[in-house]
Amino acid sequence: MTTSRNQPAKSGADTRFKPGNPGKPKGTRSRATMAAEALLNGEAEKLTRTAIDKALEGDIVALRLCLERLVPPRKDSPVRIELPEIANAADVVGASAAVLAAVGSGEVTPEEAGRVMTLLTAHKNIVEMGDLERRIAALEEKN
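Below the sequence we write its predicted structure tokens.
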């Protein structure tokens, strides 16, 4: 017998989540995770020492494991782009052109440039909000 995902089984039991029942609470650990933790409980120091000893003996996998714990891989790296000072929203156009020129010359990757452009957009929004607040305050003082 074939039933669709949204249809309950013929037995009459409705196994779909009801409104307000999102399933497992956030942070709930699976049975496999809890079983692994129970097995490792109290053994972490011995296992760590063994991994270090194997790494020192030249085991490449153990060495990689130890080094990744000591110096985790960088998720991001600094980007150097000469940008003009941004004092108002119009200055963002020049900064954006500088970012595009850096991509064109191969100084930065398009992905890095995208992250910088996101920062420039956020900064432009902040500058615009500050400008609006100043203008509103000046109008309120006149009245």
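The chain has five helices and no strands.
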